[in-house]
Specification:
Layout lengths: L10 E5 L3 H12 L3 E5 L3 H9 L15 E6 L12 H9 L2 E3 L1 H12 L5 E5 L4 H14 L3 E6 L15 E6 L2 H5 L8 E4 L7 H4 L2 H13 L3 E5 L3 H12 L3 E6 L7 E5 L2 E6 L2 E7 L9 H16 L4 H9 L9 E6 L2 E5 L6 H8 L5 E6 L1 E2 L14 E7 L3 H8 L5 E5 L1 H13 L7 E4 L3 E2 L7 H13 L5 E2 H4 L1
Helix pairs in contact: 5-10, 5-11, 8-9
């Protein structure tokens, strides 16, 4: 745990008692702060009270005594409207921050030169974060992995020289971290997402830009217009920028070429590593993730030999193009993390003959942007709230089955794929939707997919097949 010594002997309000909120309470208490914590959920408050967390109804609190409001990232800061605690804090002139900001202040006060890698982007940030941590660990470095990827940042071991903190940071967390200042900051891509929480695309992109703007060195994907502009602006300010691309060669930077990565230095290009046969990095989107990770760890001092070895031994993350099993020629892939159309497109473009399971709670724009992928899809199996809207979008472009539930979709897709003469038919869960209509989160949805697939007769797990 990282004690939040920057708030020693001060009072702090905290709202949101999920995993990161509880870790922050412990951090603040360990650092000598007095914490007044609250949550809108009575069940969450009861659970927190049982765990010994001091509760104070912040509606009735004296805000003049608070040094800060620490807000959970899932709580609205600005849109669709500020949470009531935000209004109270603003009225009292109390700063509003999150746990990432507390981490940054602790590092800056105690060990400002300790290596800190922060990763953001609309898609791919978890895989890139995990790959960077793996590359560093495989090279023998002391690594702490956390943030939006699952482990609260303040639960990690404290910064020190020689210890690398690799932290995934969402747009919500960046919004609550005004002094975010990583050693290396990564911005992978920016496409429409979370506009209900940020209001406009320009504001969303601007929040993402802040992570790399505050970094000592920046790694930026230049495969979309927003990020190209960000890279140019930051470089013009005199910062070190390494560009990466999954779509085109670069004069300087790291880019995907064929089935591998190449490094360009002032126009001179050399191959770095082949990605062929690395299932965890299949597809152009994962080539971008690998390029970003390679660029980041190179800035941190890893040799090309260490980078190659780490990439070749990376096993990937659950729910992100996860190969969960085979039955004969049929491959079953869990891409439950694809909660929007842009993420689903990455998976759809990675295979040639697809039995596609999609649906859930649709996001803005639906799946209209995926029409170019329809020729790769043998049949779609639609589930959840988006079933009818998705069926309407698909129209007569390909066969559609209204499966309603994930279990029914898997059974039907597996039976159909078994009779497909293609070399490798793929049953792909890549929903292009949030999970909340039928599952608590994308992890639960992906776990259900894995379990249902592995219960089918004749399934060989990915590990056994390997």
């Amino acid at each position: 745990m990282i004690p939040a010594s920057t708030f020693k002997d001060r009072q702090v309000a905290l709202f949101g008692l999920g995993g990161s909120g509880r870790a922050t309470v412990a951090s603040l208490a360990a650092g000598g702060a007095s914490v007044a914590a609250w949550d809108d959920s009575e069940a969450t408050r009861d659970s927190a009270a049982e765990a010994g967390i001091p509760l104070v109804d912040l509606r009735e609190a004296d805000w003049s005594g608070f040094a800060a409001l620490v807000l959970a990232p899932g709580v609205p800061l600005t849109h669709p409207e500020p949470h009531w605690t935000v209004r109270l804090a603003e009225r009292a002139g109390v700063e509003i921050i999150g746990d990432i900001e507390i981490f940054c202040r602790e590092r800056r006060r105690n060990v400002p030169a300790a290596p800190f890698v922060a990763i953001t982007g609309t898609n791919g940030k978890s895989t890139t974060t995990a790959l960077i941590a793996h590359l560093l660990a495989a090279a023998g470095r002391d690594v702490q992995l956390g943030g939006n990827i699952g482990t609260p940042v303040l639960s990690l071991d404290p910064p020190r020289m020689g210890r690398y903190h690799v932290v995934e940071v969402s747009s919500f967390q960046i919004d609550l971290a005004p002094s975010l200042d990583p050693s290396v900051g990564l911005l992978l891509n920016v496409t429409p997402d979370h506009l209900d929480r940020h209001g406009t695309m320009a504001r969303y992109a601007g929040i993402k830009e802040r992570l790399v703007a505050g970094a000592t060195a920046a790694v930026i994907g230049v495969d979309d217009e927003y990020c190209q502009a960000v890279a140019d602006r930051i470089e013009q300010r005199g910062k070190r920028v390494v560009r990466i691309s999954a779509r085109r060669p670069l004069a300087d930077g790291v880019f995907a070429e064929g089935q591998g990565l190449s490094v360009a230095d002032n126009g001179a290009v050399r191959p770095l590593v082949s990605l062929a046969g690395i299932a965890s990095l299949r597809g152009a989107h994962n080539a971008q993730n690998a390029a970003a990770a390679a660029a980041a760890v190179s800035l941190l001092g890893l040799s090309e030999a260490e980078i190659v070895n780490g990439i070749r031994t990376f096993r990937g993350l659950p729910h992100r193009m996860e190969q969960v099993g085979r039955r004969g020629r049929v491959l079953f892939v869990n891409d439950s993390k694809a909660t929007n159309a842009d993420a689903a497109e990455k998976a759809l473009r990675s295979f040639d003959r697809i039995y596609w399971i999609a649906g859930g709670r649709a996001k803005e724009g639906g799946i209209e942007s995926l029409a170019g992928c329809f020729p790769k899809i043998a049949k779609a199996y639609l589930i959840g709230e988006a079933m009818e809207p998705f069926a309407e979008t698909i129209g007569s472009a390909l066969p559609v089955e209204r499966s309603v539930t994930l279990a029914a979709a898997i059974a039907a897709a597996a039976a159909d794929a078994e009779h497909d003469p293609a070399a490798e038919p793929v049953v792909l869960l890549s929903p292009a939707c949030a999970s909340y209509d039928q599952f608590q989160n994308f992890e639960r949805r992906g776990d259900a997919f894995r379990s249902l697939v592995q219960s089918l007769d004749g399934i060989v797990s990915h590990e056994e097949a390997a």
